[in-house]
Write a sequence for this structure.
């Protein structure tokens, strides 16, 4: 198996994580192990727990990081469950958590995974292939109103109603099965003029993937888990790839960096809120021109970091 993934903002992420010279770290989206490798090399005494929903990614990471022996441990699952995986290793607290969100280059470029409209393949989109429900199941079973909600909420697709109506009409004739058929419908319904330079299928494919894999719910739960598991001085680093993810991370960091959430005008604090984080990135970091030249997919990435208090 050839699992290829080029990590984004590799050095920037590790600079934040390694700054406290910690001993135990969680890479919640380990992929092929690029970020974990640099962290293990940078801190020779540290251990890394790598988590991923994709079994192919874990196999690649385990092979790529075999030289580090038991300093690297791999677990298949959701990063929102990181506390359970850490407890199984006897880890009560960790010194850093990294979440590199979205899909990997390998997942996008594998036609059989169904993540991309650029290739003909099954409408799958499962990050964890042991799960039974696929993107085709969503298209073939959800009510039109549910499809509208998914497309608008997770894809910010302005033509959600027209698309959902056509999806339901077509499935009454034959079920949805492959990416090319869906992309052709979207080319017709959306049209290039509407998308401001984006291919017409972009927002719908994103929405289906996010909904199927519960990515935003996973992110919310994962941030809470990271907060609960990190010790004072630990770093939480998140790399996001679209505005929906970045909005959640930004709001979470800002909320946890506040010591009071009382409404304006209240004469004295009564909320009891305790500040738990210090934001390290006033504005999110973005890929350098040099990285963009090497990896065009890094163009939409944003890195935010915070320190546990």
């Amino acid at each position: 198996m050839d699992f290829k993934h080029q990590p984004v903002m590799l050095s920037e992420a590790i600079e934040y994580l390694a700054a406290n010279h910690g001993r135990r770290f969680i890479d919640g989206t380990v992929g092929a192990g690029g970020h974990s490798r640099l962290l293990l090399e940078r801190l020779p005494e540290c251990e890394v727990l790598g988590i991923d929903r994709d079994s192919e990614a874990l196999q690649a990471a385990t092979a790529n990081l075999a030289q580090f022996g038991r300093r690297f441990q791999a677990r298949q699952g959701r990063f929102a469950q990181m506390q359970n995986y850490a407890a199984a290793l006897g880890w009560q607290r960790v010194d850093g958590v990294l979440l590199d969100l979205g899909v990997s280059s390998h997942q996008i470029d594998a036609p059989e995974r169904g993540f991309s409209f650029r290739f003909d393949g099954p409408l799958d989109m499962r990050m964890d292939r042991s799960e039974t429900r696929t993107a085709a199941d969503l298209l073939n079973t959800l009510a039109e109103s549910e499809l509208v909600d998914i497309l608008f909420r997770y894809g910010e697709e302005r033509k959600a109603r027209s698309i959902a109506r056509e999806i339901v009409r077509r499935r009454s004739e034959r079920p949805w099965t492959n990416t090319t058929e869906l992309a052709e419908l979207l080319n017709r319904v959306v049209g290039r003029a509407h998308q401001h330079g984006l291919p017409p299928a972009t927002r719908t494919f994103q929405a289906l993937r996010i909904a199927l894999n519960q990515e935003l719910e996973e992110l919310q739960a994962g941030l809470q888990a990271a907060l609960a598991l990190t010790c004072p001085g630990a770093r939480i680093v998140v790399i996001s790839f679209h505005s929906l993810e970045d909005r959640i991370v930004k709001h979470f960091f800002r909320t946890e960096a506040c010591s009071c959430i009382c409404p304006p005008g209240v004469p004295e604090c009564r909320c009891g809120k305790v500040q738990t984080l210090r934001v390290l990135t006033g504005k999110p970091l973005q890929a350098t021109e040099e990285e963009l030249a090497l990896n065009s997919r890094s163009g939409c990435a944003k890195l935010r970091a915070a320190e546990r208090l």
